[in-house]
From TrEMBL:
This is DinB family protein. Residues 62-197 form the DinB-like domain. Pfam families: DinB_2. It comes from the Bacteria.
Length: 203
């Protein structure tokens, strides 16, 4: 590739990234996420936020996410909980446990960023293996009950935050984000793994 062509490609790439990061919000949208400024998150966050359930507010979005969770787990056959589609792959129960455990981690990070808890109270950290710990031996009803407990805690926490706390900036997994965007990541993370279960475990 000639130098001039290479420079043109680099400039185009920079312009594309800039456009993505400065894409205008839609203030007239009924959906809250469409009204959130791009300055509140970087493009890495959209991997999950794009999969979040719709909602005109955090409360509605989380309620829709909870309803989806209950309906999805209720529909899983009991004999599929210990099923894995290949060697060294997680079982359905382990995938569900991972979603639950990682939600607890994301919620704690959100509360830390919001200033609700201190660094000393920040006790749970992400580790791929530890997020599935404890799944073995749990029934579908056990996992659903745990999911409901954690989700209720999540909903109560986000619903209690002030507008200023929801918009406060911090990081999640090294990515710049506001507190309220983490709520959308929780929803999208759930959707992502439910899609994986549908495609690889329940065919």
């Amino acid at each position: 590739m000639k130098v001039a062509q290479l420079i043109s490609v680099i400039i185009l790439s920079i312009q594309t990234i800039a456009c993505q990061n400065n894409k205008p919000i839609n203030p007239d949208s009924d959906m809250l996420f469409d009204r959130i400024p791009r300055s509140e998150y970087n493009t890495n966050m959209t991997y999950y936020t794009d999969k979040a359930l719709p909602g005109s507010s955090l409360e509605e979005m989380l309620r829709n996410t909870t309803n989806e969770m209950i309906a999805f787990i209720d529909a899983i056959p009991e004999d599929k909980i210990d099923y894995a589609y290949g060697s060294f792959k997680w079982t359905v129960g382990e995938v569900l446990q991972h979603i639950i455990s990682y939600e607890e981690i994301m919620l704690e990070v959100a509360l830390l960023n919001a200033g609700v808890i201190s660094e000393k109270e920040h006790t749970v950290y992400y580790n791929q293996n530890t997020t599935i710990a404890g799944a073995k031996g749990k029934s579908k009803s056990d996992l659903l009950a745990e999911f409901k407990r954690v989700r209720q805690k999540t909903e109560n926490a986000f619903n209690s935050l002030t507008d200023e706390q929801q918009k406060r900036m911090g990081t999640l997994d090294g990515n710049k984000t506001s507190v309220r965007v983490i709520a959308f990541c929780i929803s999208g993370h759930q959707t992502h793994h439910f899609n994986v279960i549908r495609e690889l475990y329940l065919d």
